[in-house]
């Protein structure tokens, strides 16, 4: 019975993955073969159809992680903690992809792989901030404390997200302004929107699956036998084994 | 205020540690001079950046200590039994850390001026204000992260890993404001950077104060 429930709970994320993958395929076909080349950049610009959706969705996932962190602090329930972990992990994946794709585009366009542009720098800082959250999380082995610490670190790290979004407006940036339907040609709308929904559904599917893995991990932790009592507060603080 | 007084007293009684931190800041500034070489104009151009990097790096050692004394022998639990709210505890500790980091800045600033052979163009009280605002923007998140990582064996590693990315905008504002006061402000940009510093101080102090009670409860 419980395995049926578990299988039912897998249907939605797997469905999202399939829909997202399908949308991405169509968006890439449109972006690579249907939409004409850009007047100044030629074919190099086509990476925009995967770069911009990844950037949009990375920010959305960090926003989800932020709300899940508030939910985790508010309710104290482990399912919210699992959502925080899953959203931050998938958000980090997209964040890293955005930086890599941006570098690939920057080399032929700007002539360099990396430049200390405000948008690039704040995006890299955002990556390091959320990596710090996951590293911190991995060092704490008490589930309740780990959930609180992860939630707080996520909320504080989220301070960087609006800065990344607004960086192109606040500073003189090489990077173009935020891509919206008003700032790109109308022929780009369809592949960009399909790409955005494709990456979003794919990411939500991955979060759904990752969340279940995290929840199973928590169940295993609960079932695991207790460790022997520490001899002294120093040992409790991790001087044996380098963890909490 | 009692928490602030307690922390100031503890640091004063162990003031050799503070002296060591000041020496560390001086070493940092000297290292920048050695790394750049005897090019006075290059040193002067980036003096504000060297100053704030030295203050930030040395202040992490201060911040790491902030909650170590409280985690020893259950001192934090004893503090929480007192009629003080966790929020008051946070603001007391963050204020104490602001005082220490400001003191570090007030030591490092004239040292940098001497080492890099500079005379500030802007008024001294404005420089002091920039130092205090910059110290505040390190102290609030630093205090929160210090509490968050207090029970970790790798605290000395994790505190900068978490703190540095977060305070990048505050460092940027402090460096820009200091640089304008040291070298001149022909475009009148100083008020903007001071406003950025105040904004980040408000964000950090309110957000961290709000979250701190959950850290000590966990």
What is the approximate shape of chain A? globular
Q: How would you classify the helix and strand content of chain A by structural class?
A: mainly alpha
Task: State mean pLDDT of chain B (0 to 100 scale).
Answer: 85
Low-pLDDT runs of chain A: 232-244
Share of helical residues of chain B? over 70%
Rounded to the nearest angstrom, the distance between the terminal CA atoms of chain A is 37 Å
Share in β-strands of chain A = under 5%
Shape, principal axes of CA atoms of chain B? globular
Spans of chain B of at least 5 consecutive residues whose pLDDT stays below 50 are none
What report would you give on this structure?
The complex is a heterodimer of chains A (244) and B (218). Chain A is mainly alpha-helical and 244 residues long. Chain A has one domain (15-174, 189-217). Chain A has helices at residues 2-34, 48-75, 78-110, 118-138, 143-157, 160-170, 189-223, 233-239. The two termini of chain A are 37 Å apart. Residues 232-244 of chain A have low confidence and may be disordered. With 218 residues, chain B is mainly alpha-helical. Chain B has one domain (2-217). In chain B, 84% of the residues lie in helices and 0% in strands. Chain B contains 10 helices and no strands. The longest helix of chain B is centred in the middle third of the chain and has 30 residues, at 86-115. Chain B is globular and about 55 Å long. Chain B starts with a helix and ends with a helix. The relative contact order of chain B is 0.15. The chains are: A mainly alpha (244), B mainly alpha (218).
């Amino acid at each position: 019975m419980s395995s049926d429930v578990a299988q039912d709970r897998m249907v939605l994320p797997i469905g999202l993955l399939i829909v997202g993958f399908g949308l991405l395929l169509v968006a890439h076909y449109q972006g690579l073969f249907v939409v004409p080349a850009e007047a100044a950049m030629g074919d190099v610009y086509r990476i925009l159809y995967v770069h911009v959706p990844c950037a949009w969705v990375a920010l959305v996932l960090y926003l989800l992680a932020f709300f899940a962190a508030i939910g985790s602090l508010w309710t104290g329930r482990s399912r919210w903690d699992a959502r925080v972990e899953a959203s931050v992990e998938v958000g980090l994946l997209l964040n890293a992809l955005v930086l890599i794709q941006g570098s690939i585009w920057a080399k032929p366009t700007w002539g360099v792989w990396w430049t200390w542009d405000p948008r690039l720098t704040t995006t890299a800082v955002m990556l390091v901030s959320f990596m710090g959250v996951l590293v911190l999380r991995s060092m704490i082995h008490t589930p309740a404390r780990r959930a609180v610490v992860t939630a707080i670190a996520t909320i504080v790290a989220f301070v960087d997200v609006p800065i990344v979004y607004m960086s192109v407006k606040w500073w003189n940036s090489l990077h173009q302004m935020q891509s919206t339907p008003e700032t790109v040609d109308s022929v780009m709308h369809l592949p960009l929107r399909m790409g955005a929904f494709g990456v979003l559904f794919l990411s939500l599917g991955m979060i759904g699956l990752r969340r279940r893995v995290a929840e199973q991990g928590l169940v295993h932790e609960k079932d695991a036998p207790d460790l022997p009592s520490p001899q002294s507060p120093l040992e409790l603080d991790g001087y044996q084994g380098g963890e909490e | 205020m009692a928490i602030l007084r307690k922390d100031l007293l503890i640091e004063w009684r162990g003031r050799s540690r503070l002296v060591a931190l000041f020496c560390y800041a001086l070493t940092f500034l000297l290292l920048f001079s050695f790394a750049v070489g005897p090019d006075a104009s290059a040193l002067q151009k980036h003096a504000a950046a060297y100053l704030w990097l030295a203050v930030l790096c040395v202040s992490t050692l201060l911040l790491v200590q902030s909650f170590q004394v409280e985690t020893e022998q259950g001192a934090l639990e004893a503090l929480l039994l007192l009629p003080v709210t966790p929020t008051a505890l946070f603001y007391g500790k963050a204020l104490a850390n602001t005082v220490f980091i400001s003191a570090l800045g007030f030591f490092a600033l004239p040292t940098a001026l001497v080492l890099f052979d500079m005379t500030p163009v802007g008024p001294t009280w404005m420089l002091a204000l920039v130092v205090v605002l910059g110290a505040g923007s390190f102290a609030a998140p630093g205090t929160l992260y210090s509490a968050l990582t207090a029970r970790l064996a790798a605290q000395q590693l994790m505190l900068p890993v978490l703190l540095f990315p977060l305070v990048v905008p505050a460092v940027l504002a402090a460096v820009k404001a200091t640089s304008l006061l040291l070298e001149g402000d022909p475009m009148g940009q100083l008020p903007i950077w001071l406003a950025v510093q105040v904004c980040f101080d408000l964000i950090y102090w309110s957000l961290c104060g709000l979250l701190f009670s959950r850290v000590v409860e966990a």
